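Build the 3D complex.
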Amino acid sequence: MFVFTILTAGDGADFRQNAALRVYLGIAAAIWMTVQTAATMIPKEREKQTWNAMLLSRVSLREIVISKSVAACVPGLLIITAMLPMLSIGLFVSGAAWHAMFTAPALMVAMLGIAGSIGMLIGAINRNSRSASLQAALLTMIVLGSPSLASGYPPIRGFTDVLVGSGSLPTALTYIGGSLGFTALVGWLAMLAAKRGPGEFDA
Amino acid sequence: MNEPLRIDLQNITKRYDKLTAVDNLSLALGPGEIFGFIGPNGAGKTTTIKILATLLEPTTGVAMVDGINVVENPNAVRARIGYMPDTFGVYDEFKVWEYLDFFAAAYKVPKSDRPGLIDLVLDLTNLSNKKDAYVEGLSRGMKQRLCLARTMVHNPKVLLLDEPASGLDPRARIEIRDLLKELRNLGKTIIVSSHILPELADFCTSVGIIEKGKLLVSGPIDSLIGDNIGVRVLELKVPAEDKATASKVLGPLKGVRNVAERGEFLDIQFDGGIDAQSDLLLALINAKVRIICFGEVQTDLEAVFMNLTRGLVA
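Done.
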């Protein structure tokens, strides 16, 4: 009900002006959960001493990192799925462009991808899940709590514009594509870190 | 065509900054060999095994498994090896068969082949009756055997077992030992590190003693003992009244270093060959010494180990 209220409060202009921060609450929760889950996945395997066994199988490191990232995104995806009907109503009520019905959720999913890959990178460079979890929490707090998010800083504002349906289709596609590209880059770094890590750590 | 060596280490060195964990180690093993890796803690056994397992890269030297370079083609090597670390984890929430099925899938064993393979490795490791039990409920020994089953689930040619029997009770150790003998009969090449030397002596075709990263000696146990215990001890039992004569006869003979009395026996420190050993008997008989018992005191692997090592770590 709370989420419904914050997403549908006000008519068109109000929604566009205020909903950014309100949508942000939902996506922030999803991102937080995703980063936390992803960051502890590899360290937990190391702690349980199952990581080397996994590495020595014929599953490639890329497959392991991608599948763990996807698994880490599941809680966040559930949050987004739960938000989806209310977000759609909110966008409809506010008179957002038709493409926003697709681009807003797509960008949310892409943002989860970034969160998942950053979490995996944090996990890959940490030996234990406690330190990984702490680093993930700090990073998420710094990023999500950054004043630039609320200050209308253009690149961040672009994200929120797409999420509340006030951005153009090319802008939305640019942000979605950019997010996916960034996810791939960070995921690749996570893979390198995971490859370097286990043997040397365990020696 | 000759089958390539299953394991071929050529001048392997592994350094961590100033620490040299493995120092110019060479080793060659063929099919069906069980090599016992002996050394004090920190000697470099685990590092060597990890290099073969593709988990570590050597600083210098070449490591090959079944003719494949472990650095250049680790994925191909991984398909050929089963590695059991000294400390290992399991997924407690799985059932035993699920755990093995998970790893069989990870090793890309075709789905149709998995049930048969799982039954086979469970049978080999004597865990068939625990197939539907949760991993969490297994004893330590059973988990150890499950880990061994996991290393075999893709039917590797080479098994790398790091302290497979550590922390097990005597029965579980005997079961592991019997299992290794069975695997030897299946033609697997096995490297096994252990601190329990008499057990290694029982089933290893050859052993190597490593200290401070250097492989001090390696080879079949008998030749290792022969080569590294310079002076053998022969024991002779004669009636008490013949002891003095026996000592007098033996003293000047070739190869005899010392004759000492030990209870009912005479201990003869002897560095001669097997022919010279029979000459001792002949001389005693000619001197009309009545011999009750004559033989060599068995020198075991522990004696060789203690003789060669000084407890140094890398």
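Residues 198-203 of chain A have pLDDT under 50 and may be disordered.
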